[in-house]
Amino acid sequence: MEALSPTMEEGRVAKWHKREGDTVKAGDTLAEIETDKAVMDLVARADGVLRQVAVAEGQTVPVGSVVAVIAAPGETVGATAASAPPPAPVPSGSGMRDTGYGMRDAGSVVPAPTDVTRVKASPLAKRMAREAGVDLKLVTGSGPGGRVVKRDLEGTAQGAPTPVAAVADTHPASRIPHPASPRISHPAVSGVPFEDIPLTQIRKTIAKRLVTSLGPIPHFFLTSEVDMERAAEAREALNKQLGDRGKVSFNDIVIKATGLALIKHRACNAWFQEDHIRYWNEVHIGMAVAVEDGLITPVIRNADVKSLAEIGWEAKELADKARSRRLQPSEYTGATFSVSNLGMFDIDQFTAVINPPEAGIIAVGSIVQKPVVLDGQVTGRRRMRLTMSCDHRVIDGATGAAFLQTLKQMLENPLAMLL
Amino acid sequence: MASQFDVVILGGGPAGYVAAIRSAQLGMSTAVIEKEKLGGVCVNIGCIPTKALLHSAYIARLLRDAKEFGVEAGAVKTDYGVAMQRSRKVSDQNSKGVEFLMKKNKVTVVKGAGVLQPGRKVKVGNDVYEAKKAVIIATGSRVKGLPQIGLEINKTTVISSDEALFLEKAPASLAIIGAGAVGMEFADIFSAFGTPVTLIEALPRILPLEDAEASDALAKSYKKRGIEVIAGAKVKKGTPAKDKVTLEVEANGATRKIDVAAVLMAAGRAVNTENIGLAECGVQVTERGFIKVDAGLQTTAPGYYAIGDVAGPPMLAHKGMREGVTVTELIAGKKPHAIRYDNVPSVTYCHPEVASIGLTEDQCKERKFDYVAGRFPFSANGRARGTGETEGFVKILRDKKYGEILGAHIVGGHASEIIHELAVARENEYTVEEVELAIHAHPTMSEAVAQAALDSLGRVVDM
């Protein structure tokens, strides 16, 4: 059982696509695996014959267990695979992969990990991972004994911290092109995606004391009511112009405004990392989506630079994927800040729980007609309540308030987003 | 009647004989077909005998300079014939060593010229050898002349390394065409044996594949020693006579005539792909004439593999040896570590020696890498001063961001031995920091490696 998502500890075989005796090629879908987050394809990592299926449909096994054995044609398979107890879970998919030649012996299917917390990686890979903010535990190593080497990390240096599939590097004459992760250029700060600033003593003390008083993440909350009249007008005009080409929702406008406000308030666009705070120069907004049996937050990357139409289209796509449980790990990891919206349930206001290591989340309430005093006159206006949950280890009251104020101004005067 | 083996290897050079041993170790019945001597070019007319001759040259120069070290050897006389005889003995010992290894590993050695046949068969004379698992083609390469300008190898006045290795006497004067490893080494040898040598290279600098600083250092060293070095030169015509050759050489905008007793052709090699039945078996070759192989070294004909010089550059014995191990492990169904073709060391054993791995500084520039070059000269190294080997340097090209060792270049005594620290480092992706952190014994030439690593970090100690 391969780790198909960063947090996956076990997987349920939903459906086998291949049967015992079938010839398989590297890349063929062997089975559909239901993980904690989505239904994913388990693909063959080698050519050969599917000699043995060790896990029946519907059965759940830990990561690292043998699910099947692929053997070379004519090769016999001992009783080891099926009868052996599943070994301890391994951090990444070392259960089924090859080192690059498309040939392997059946015995090697069984991994023998000893210490799941230890990551085998070359000094160069460790350094690249550290600078790119990639967790090496999530990377499949293609070096000797599953060691993470440079080629496993190439292409991630500027991307989000997502797991990277190993691509075997063999002969120069027939090298496989590496699927580099998308690189979105960002106008913000000198090309680097983030900056790590060590915790100062006072920050450390604040962190310690607040944690002891309030639980793992010391939350505090800020609420502000926003006049959405002009945003509503802008939305109507935009949707008219877009016509059949898509729709912009209030949530899309909130995401875009949040992205832009975060660029102005980098102090809120951060991750708490135990001994340092990572201030992000890129903005990736997690968007909470309710699914049948829970909740998942797909990520709109670089929300500050995308147009409203792009965000609208992408949000819909991601929400659809989330509901059908087809999100890829890269699509729901790496957010720098989140937005949660319960407006459609007529919730006036609520407090959302921070998604660590992010330092903040905005909870969006419903838009309600309310009487307000404007220029000395009582008039009906569309109003919406935003509540920001802040991690006090990173964000102080005034810092969060300043951000929320910028966000409010942007929503109340959507033209400010163009500034 | 066909004899059956699991693996049949055509060619018993460094790639072929190593493949044979590994194949036998893996429990496969193995046959090697060799038309000449086991060990191939490397053992018989390449790497091994030239190293013996280079050592003779080294001793000659050492004795000439011995007075300075307080040792008087009198007038130094050299005799190329004796040195040649010794080099032959060394080659024979090595070839016999390979024969012994074949016996020890129960590899069947077939003497004769093999021709591939369809159905994983190789025909030698009237006998047919059938491979149950795989045929491995390891036929190697040979020297080539330049017939188009009148310099066809005639084995008397126009010779190749094949003849130079068997001369009884050093030529009265010699022009060497091609300043790659072969040309550089023979220039070193014959110069030490008293032959006036003119070294001619078509590309703008000698050792054109090495880092420009290495080329410069060697050009300077050779000129100081009286070897004439003409780079960026075009040999327009060669006219061999009975006991001399006249060359017309164009360089620096002028054409001049050079009369020499002999010309040594050291420009390029041709692969041995003719008359071995490649086309009949569906084994295709590339535009450059090498056998086409996939990532697993298999040719376009299933069951036929190719390794060593015929399978593509770099045409180096150690690259072929590695392919020999890898290909047999693949055939046996193992999953060997992928060969890193960007991490094959390159060594020229002239004096001072030149050894390198990875990219040159020019290649780093072409690829627009953000790099820092760290350097350390042997003139600042205590051990090198003691032995009088102060020529040369260690140069390490470090990636600025991650400290990756992009390339390393060593010119100096024992460079061929020192380079492996950097080969190990690169194979395991150590950065310059790990190299420097390893404690280097003092005083050694290898300290220069640690110092060059430090220099690339801006904190060199000994300079």
Tally of individual domains of chain B: 3
Largest interface: A-B, 29 and 28 residues
Q: N- to C-terminal separation of chain B?
A: 71 Å
User: How many angstroms separate the termini of chain A?
Assistant: 50 Å
- Count of separate DSSP helical elements of chain A: 9
How much strand content do the residues of chain A show?
15-25%
Give the tally of β-strands of chain A.
18
Q: Count the DSSP helices of chain B.
A: 14
Total number of distinct structural domains of chain A: 3
Q: What's the SSE pattern of chain A?
A: EEEEEEEHHHEHEHHEEEEEEHHEEEH
Morphology of chain A: globular
CATH superfamily of the largest domain in chain A: Chloramphenicol acetyltransferase-like domain
CATH superfamily placement of the largest domain in chain B: FAD/NAD(P)-binding domain
Second CATH tier, the architecture of the largest domain in chain A: 2-Layer Sandwich
How would you describe this protein?
- The complex is a heterodimer of chains A (about 425) and B (about 475).
- Helices cover about 25% and strands about 25% of the residues of chain A.
- Chain A is α+β, with helices and mostly antiparallel strands.
- In chain A, the strands form five sheets. Chain A has a six-stranded mixed β-sheet with strand order 9-18-17-16-12-15.
- The longest helix of chain A has 16 residues.
- Chain A has three domains: about 110 residues, Beta Barrel (OB fold (Dihydrolipoamide Acetyltransferase, E2P)), CATH 2.40.50.100; about 60 residues, no CATH class; about 220 residues, 2-Layer Sandwich (Chloramphenicol Acetyltransferase), CATH 3.30.559.
- Chain B has three domains: about 210 residues, FAD/NAD(P)-binding domain, CATH 3.50.50.60; about 120 residues, FAD/NAD(P)-binding domain, CATH 3.50.50; about 100 residues, 2-Layer Sandwich (Enolase-like, domain 1).
- Helices cover about 30% and strands about 25% of the residues of chain B.
- In chain B, α3 runs antiparallel to α4 and α3 packs parallel to α6.
- Chain B is globular.
- The interface between A and B is medium-sized, with 29 and 28 residues.
